[in-house]
């Protein structure tokens, strides 16, 4: 296994304050001077954003609002940076840095830490999730990169961000949607619930445009997408009757819980429960749940 994919024990489960120190309570320091906890003041132009940080979309109106607050009260919470090239790269706090520029600040308080690339992405992800700053696609892309480039399992990711494994799996499935539909989620035109309802439907882009145009609810979207799901019509396959409303609701509930596709075939004599998985991680999660092991 390459060095970049070696799994390291992560301290992120303790939260950002424990990892970085209680920096928010740090007393102000003069430019270029470091405090006991490592807070210092640096020229704002010496900082640069991380090109691969999870957050891509910054709302101009909210940035202006934050800039007004910073102009009136200063930048209370330091920006977390790491040494990079001839300056410093932002690990956490790019939104504050952007707003500080709009507020015409020349210097900003920072905490300098020597993080590697994987730690930098982890911390940026956790900070944005804790602040609820990421849309569903940005969050999913961060999980995908941590899994693909740094070898994190879904179980490890769930522990890092203090969310369920099914939440991670559900978000990663959103990356199966066409790029224009993902962009609608980024722009806030579709919610995560809308996007999840569209998975597996035909003509997804057309359905997404219709949902936005008609301002449909998630429940309406589920009905619309269900009607557009491909039907099994191969020779020898018996056509499946439309699901009972209670059965359909149970399928959705189990899918939400497990992060897997769920199909229930019920009759008076009994039935079958079918779970679909796409990765060995998902299969392992099901086995652990069935055996009662810790996940």
Question: TL;DR?
Answer:
By secondary structure, this protein is of the alpha/beta class. The protein is 46% helix and 13% strand. It starts with 15 loop residues before the first helix and ends with a helix.
Characterize the structure shown:
- This protein has helices at residues 16-20, 60-73, 94-102, 117-130, 136-150, 154-161, 165-173, 179-186, 192-198, 204-214, 218-227, 245-258, 280-291, and strands at residues 39-43, 47-48, 79-84, 87-92, 107-112, 261-267, 270-276.
- The protein is an alpha/beta fold.
- The strands form 2 sheets. The protein has a 5-stranded mixed β-sheet. The chain has a two-stranded antiparallel ribbon with strand order 6-7.
- Strand 6 (261-267) and strand 7 (270-276) form a beta hairpin.
- Helix 4 runs antiparallel to helix 5 and helix 5 (136-150) packs across helix 7 (165-173).
- The chain starts with 15 loop residues before the first helix and ends with a helix.
- The model is unreliable at 1-37 and 232-242 (pLDDT under 50).
């Amino acid at each position: 296994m390459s060095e970049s994919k070696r799994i390291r024990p992560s301290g992120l489960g303790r939260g950002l304050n424990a990892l970085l120190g209680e920096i928010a309570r740090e007393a102000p320091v003069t430019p270029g001077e470091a405090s006991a906890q490592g807070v210092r003041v640096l020229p704002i132009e010496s900082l640069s954003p991380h090109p691969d940080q999870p957050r891509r979309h910054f709302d101009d109106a909210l940035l202006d609002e934050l800039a007004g607050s910073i102009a009136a009260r200063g930048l209370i919470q330091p920006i977390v940076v790491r040494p990079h090239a001839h300056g410093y790269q932002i690990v956490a706090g790019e939104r504050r840095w952007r707003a500080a520029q709009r507020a015409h600040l020349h210097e900003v308080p920072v905490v300098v830490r020597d993080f590697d690339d994987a730690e930098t992405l982890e911390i940026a992800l956790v900070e944005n999730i804790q602040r609820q700053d990421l849309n569903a696609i940005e969050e999913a892309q961060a999980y995908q990169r941590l899994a693909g480039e740094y070898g994190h399992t879904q179980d490890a990711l769930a522990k890092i961000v203090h969310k369920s494994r099914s939440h991670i799996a559900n978000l990663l499935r959103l990356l199966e949607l066409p790029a224009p539909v993902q962009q609608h989620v980024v722009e806030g035109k579709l919610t995560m619930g809308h996007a999840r309802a569209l998975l597996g439907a035909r003509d997804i882009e057309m359905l997404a445009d219709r949902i936005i145009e008609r301002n449909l609810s998630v429940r309406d979207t589920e009905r619309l997408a269900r009607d557009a799901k491909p039907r099994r019509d191969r020779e020898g396959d018996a056509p499946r009757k439309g699901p009972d409303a209670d059965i359909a609701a149970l399928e959705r509930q189990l899918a939400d819980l497990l992060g897997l596709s769920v199909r229930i075939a019920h009759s008076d004599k009994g039935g079958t429960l079918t779970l679909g998985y796409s990765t060995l991680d998902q299969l392992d999660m099901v086995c652990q749940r069935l055996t009662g092991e810790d996940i």
